[in-house]
């Protein structure tokens, strides 16, 4: 069904890309009180939050920088010709306002916002925020345990940090499994690498049936083969896609808090998304973009390029 | 008259300052087709344009970076307690869309936009753009020759560049005098310094009666004395205020294309605005902020701090 | 009493300043379990923490960058010839380990650490951390209400943020007054400026008797006069000195989260410390240095230069 | 024929590479009025110009930064042992002086300069400048329609921008085909990618017979195979080589105005040039290096490394 | 044999990685006068020195930045599960104090320090410093001619610079062969590329039997094959490993003085180390990290990631 | 006497300032073998050298960055109307080629070059290089002991470093006094500040009669008064002017190796030069500009602005 022209982004042929108030991909800014809200199919949402960060902070600044970079995105996919903004009503739904000094309050606010989206049948494409963001989002979306395709250099499956702290950006999916938001047998984590504290996270993954694809396996088998397995694991049921920008090699994506060298390049970073076509995606996020460590803005531009790819995958 | 609450900016106590789609000073985004447009008293407008730049480019990126930095501006003036957003209906009117490859076309677009504002009794506070921006704005505002208080390190009064090119950021006020948009006897230029090509611009100023205050005179006499003279020169008739960020020392405002060392510091940069109270300001601009040369964003933050001061002066 | 040679810093004449494991001012690293701990007179402590930050994060990285920059500090004060490291046993006591995902836990850890110092008669010179750091430090030091000389562009006297959050870097001294850690009549805040949310903080200051010196008053009266008043206000009783780097103009100290333009320059930043001589200083801190916003390291170098001045003032 | 020793560059063994007035590859600076001008075989020319840029500006600063970086280039090719400066008389011919505020005037100046080169049998190796630079150069060189091997992420084949503007960096080769400067059947564009406005440019390419190799095809087939096709397409007739630095992945070449992620790495960036040997190259350019977006200078160094490879290809 | 717990690094689960005085990999700081010195098996040593640099300086700042970045390294190798700090007593031995204005004095100081290590059976893992560092280290370690596996883009085999200067970072291995510190027939250099002054260095290599693997050969054959040859060349006798960070492509490792484009990526940079297992490594170095050209710290982080890999290889 | 038009710089009205091969102030490049060499009155010379640097390196890159920035300098002095390039034949004499790995060899090369200038009655205006540069220059110029006006934050009068090293950037004027190149009673050092190793340098100054003006005295008395004393001290005999960029506050001049906070601003940095008029200047230098620590180029632009002021003072 063709989209409503209200939802078409501004073209760079009409207004230069450096001009205008920057919304995600130059889409209209449609907050929940907006008259067009109910018509939205895909909502691009910012979650400017990093209270779960144990290392270098900054993802709270992610959504704004991603919006700025996103004005470089045009209307049509170069490889397959898709024009996603003509396929569905896409809009920038603004940011969820977090409480930077209270983790529990912030998580409650995020879950509440996404419940509103779910109630309006709006599928979210989220720009984080650190990876703890995924947990309150999943709490809103997972009416039953979801599958998940997870791109990352870390498993984010740890039990706790600093002597018992349960909610950090290293623990969201441990919590999500415990809270029955994810079906671990339908979860695959791709790109895992970097020095390890210990193997507690991997032991947990093995115990509950989460599939981990290390970076060595990823490079050895190739994208097509790994992603075929991913599609098989999640099957045709509801699936969430979580993309931590530190999946990508930090040379290509320096603006992140916990980089691990030796990752995929930017072409591979896009290619994995093109292998998501056919997955039943109920929501997706791109997290851990940290502008203070991204002086040139390159990470944000790669980030929104990935978001565009995920958007196309959600509509394929 | 108290302003309409629709026009109140979002508070940092409610939504953290790093969150949200960035408009000027977190004001509502009200384009000419918006239902509230006719109620606007002061319109903050971006002119993302630098085709008149003869030296280092970049002011086309100014409005967006200024919007970003402006989310750090709060509601109340620290010195005098003014709360400008409660005094008048202020709004972000968006950007004028320029044609970066055609100077004449861009000037026509800018003039047309500001004519709309004038027709709606909206006083503009402009974020440039290079200094040529002032010319098409003046064409819309000057139904009769205006006075002008002009802060700058350059006179921008040259006849032409590169063998006869008449429209550059070094010529706008020469043109404005020739086109009868400015009354040269009611024009004062403050802060002039830097090495000179020759004295052609100053000879013109002297010939038509424009008052030039060099930086040496500025420092020797002090702000209060110089600004008293400025107020006397423009009198109580309609006056335009043009503030080139390169008036400020480039250490405080590095993000500009043609810096000249040895200028005012940031405290002085604000103080001059506080001496504008009482001037009959029909419009004001802050120009030549060039983000590519402002890696830290400091220039943009100083720029919007100056814009806030000018806004208060427009409402005092 | 001359200091123990164990506590003399390494000279740049012997080991180049870029060499060696960086401790504060090249002093020995003496943790509480170290044999020399009991001999320490002045302890330089890092509190790498920014969970109270409502705006741009980063002070968690402050202590390390301050240590790095501090290897540029030499042995003797240029103006008065003091050689502080020969006057008292100074040492780098390391960092207090915070819990970046739990504010209350972190505050408890900080207070416990400083209680150990107090129990050993070690006066602390702290490198923050955001300004909430001062609260748990004061809880350890204030056996009775202290006086305070506070350099800052903000009062940090707000009641709460985001609908009731009591512990942020904008509230520490409101809490400290409420908890009877500070005697408000012996508190002076110097350098206050910047746009304001509202006047709630200033109203509180007035109600309890805290003296606020705005930046305009500071510049108008001059350093000597303002600091004479400061010394008179705190008298000869126990006094804390809290120095927020955003007291200094952000051009001189860009690496901070909530800059306000129009502040003192670096010469003035040092001069105020030289007017602390004679004050009975029980502890001092330098907070809000944020390395992610300090690409060149200039803020850290100014910060440690201020720490050296405060150290001399503690020993004068 | 061995080159004249006058044209040998200064060695880094004699004068350190950071020393000396920087000319391209440390060659002699030979302007048209220089006594040795007529002896020049290959002229390295700067065109510091970006008036055709619709997006982020800066290539006007390209030639100077490329000269600076080029002092890192030595005398001999590592792979094949070529010593180009001993094979032909190479010189830095200086910059063409553009008029940054007048596109037509600038194009006329550029064409005139290159006509002088052509009249003196000097083959040009150009350092841009944005991609519109290629058009006035081709006007001077193309006495008959030329073939072209074009490395880029964009086709630069658009009809017009912003409602009819015909001369931008997105249109040069559309104009060149229309003006009969290029034989479209002997043109190949390699590396095309990125989101698209629409397919108007590709439709034109198809209509006139220009061969487009997308990045997916490029990676799938490999450099040797694609370049063999390129050599076959241009044949042994006169051919121009145009190398837009945004052909390379922006992580390797961040200093450009319109980056597209997912491109070749720096090894591949050089390898494509090594497959040009045997092509009858009448001129070559390296365009779109934008120093304001290249803080580290890495793009410029890669750019001159590519220029060295193209120089060797012109002499092979 | 399990290591002594004294030598276990601080965990990021206990103390956040941004906290604490930064030693290499958060190991204890054990200088030669320390009580535990004699127990050390592997000593991590900084040599903050760049007096041999003929081009862009900066490696004197390398050790400190590498220490800072190294706090991101955790305890366990992700691929093979090794926990090196539990296998051997590893410690940060501090920096050798150089004399930045006297090359001969500095070399004497370095050799003396490493003789102490050798006398205590401590195997060194060095963080340079420029590549001349390897020469005085080899003078201490080579009681008989050593084999060497050398990763670099340059051979560093030149005879002399600037008319007869024998000690620069371009000559260490020429000297080492002349001084009989290396057995040239057991030396392999991998990754050689970049424009060349001439072939004098390669001619020397061929004459004495040093094996050079150019980058083209490296990419064509693949890591496993090249490294198998390397292991065969050095055999099971004592071998030194020298890793110049400019072996890696400068996009991945920009912080170095003499970059050459077209090198390995960060995954390959690690993989070559994983093929060192089985080599009899008597010492290793990572040199030429230059922080002034590494604004983001990415090079240092890659550098310490390589050091971790080499450490594991020394203990495999 | 009016200058020869050959020596007139290129105007920014003819060739944009970003264009052209960058020579100092766009003057002709006249090396000693050039036909016009004998006509030169004032020679601008680069000494790209930093082997005397004990701290952060980089001044070897100074001359090139200063040349680049100097294309922003125009023809006429704004305050007094002087047009120096029309008053004397000024030229860029290129760089002295140093030997970066041999201090004595470099000093010999520098002295030899300046002896050639002296033999040709060319007065040098030098762009360093670190401050050791002044010593070999003085050896060439001082046929009898010279007076010196020295702007700096350090005295550079130390005896030796690192256990007896006599030639560093902290010792040149100790050596110059010992070698009878300077008459200490005609030497004044202005701006001295920063923490001190000890008072050995100041004791020497006092012993031989060198006048030291600390920064406190400088600010207290004001520029006019201090400079009147400076002129009186040097009298009308031959005088050298040495300007270390670290005289200026590091916020205004960050690109230097040994910054000291609390110095003059950029206006004051220029004003001191304007008080040199009437001094009999036989040569001048601007040293310690270190581009690797000057990401924005601001220090270089201030540096060349100071060089322009010194040039005018040499011709006044």
UniProtKB/TrEMBL annotation, chains A, B, C, D, E, F:
NCBIfam families: agmatinase. This is Guanidinobutyrase. It is an enzyme of class 3 (hydrolase). Mn(2+) binds at residues 131, 152, 154, 156, 244, 246. Binds 2 manganese ions per subunit. Belongs to the arginase family. Agmatinase subfamily. InterPro entries: Agmatinase-rel (IPR005925), Ureohydrolase (IPR006035), Ureohydrolase_dom_sf (IPR023696), Ureohydrolase_Mn_BS (IPR020855). One of its GO terms (molecular function) is agmatinase activity. PANTHER family: ARGINASE/AGMATINASE, GUANIDINO ACID HYDROLASE, MITOCHONDRIAL. One of its GO terms (biological process) is putrescine biosynthetic process from arginine, via agmatine. The lineage of its organism: Bacteria, Pseudomonadati, Pseudomonadota, Alphaproteobacteria, Rhodobacterales. The keyword Hydrolase applies. Keywords: Hydrolase, Manganese, Metal-binding. It holds the Pfam family Arginase. Its EC number is 3.5.3.7. It comes from Tropicibacter naphthalenivorans. PROSITE patterns: ARGINASE_1 (PS01053), ARGINASE_2 (PS51409).
